[in-house]
Amino acid sequence: MNKDACVIIPVYNEAEVIESVIAGLKKEFSNIICVDDGSSDDSRELIVKSGAHLVAHGANQGQGAALRTGIQRALKNPQFTYFVTFDADGQHRVQDAVKMLEFLRGNKADIVLGSRFLGTEAEGLPWSKRVVLKAAIIFSNVTTGLKLTDTHNGLRVFNRDVAAKLKLTCSGMAHASEIVYRVAENKFAYAELPVTITYSSYSKSKGQSVFNSFNILREIVAYRLQKDS
Ligand SMILES: Nc1nc2c(ncn2[C@@H]2O[C@H](COP(=O)(O)OP(=O)(O)OP(=O)(O)O)[C@@H](O)[C@H]2O)c(=O)[nH]1
Ligand SMILES: [Mg+2]
Predict the structure, then answer these.
(1) Model confidence, pTM
(2) How many domains in the chain?
(3) Beta carbons within 8 Å of 25's beta carbon, 6+ residues apart
(4) pLDDT tens figures, 175-202
(5) Taken in order 112, 12, 211, 205, is the CA torsion positive or negative?
(6) Among all ligands shown, which has an atom nearest to the Cα of 13?
(7) DSSP letter at 187?
(8) What b-and-e string marks burial along 139-169, b requiring 16 or more CB atoms within 10 Å of the CB?
(9) CATH number of the domain bearing residue 152
(10) For residue 65, how far is its CA from the centre of ligand 2 (angstroms)?
């Protein structure tokens, strides 16, 4: 079952949903690495119980750091040709990941990025978040020359070459922009496919506040300025 792929899930205090997220993925993927990012709830125990591979950060380091750890761990296994990043909060659909993996297998790209703004409407996306996301997309497209419709989508599938060259340095949420910069820097062949992001009351209560979204925008600009100096 997609034995050549490894799903990497950054996890931070997702005890309420992590079991069902892993159970859904297990129907299609046999290799799942969860990086627990210093959760204070039962996430770690539930990951082990669900049968996914657990890597644990002793303290919270941020989603970018969790992905970095997960990618490094997955790269150690030569069996993996493809790497899938998938959020732990139940916002992604397993079938979207499968569709993206199949696209990559057709050698049509090095990396496929999920887009919530391509074709389908993002379900329940709060308008304030939409504004911040759109601002990040414009900034990213202007500074990288890429033409993307969604730069902060946690669902991505990429090959081993991309996994080895991502070398994430942003530990927080700005890692999503960093990935896009790496795509431009390395001239990776990229594609976007439409995916559904579900904004449930759980994900909205847990996800990024608009205030924090502005912090992320600041982090992105600071990263870019530091790169250009
Ligand atoms: N917020 C947060 N999430 C983390 C952290 N480390 C790992 N994660 C995981 O990263 C994923 C995305 O986090 P979210 O806060 O939902 O970010 P998002 O999906 O970009 O934002 P929303 O659209 O508001 O849900 C989830 O699977 C979290 O469990 C961390 O330090 N902070
Ligand atoms: Mg989320």
Answers:
(1) 0.94
(2) 1
(3) 7, 9, 32, 86, 94, 97
(4) 998 999 999 999 999 999 999 998 888 8
(5) positive
(6) 1
(7) T
(8) bbbebbebebbbbbbbbbbbbbebbeebebe
(9) 3.90.550.10
(10) 16
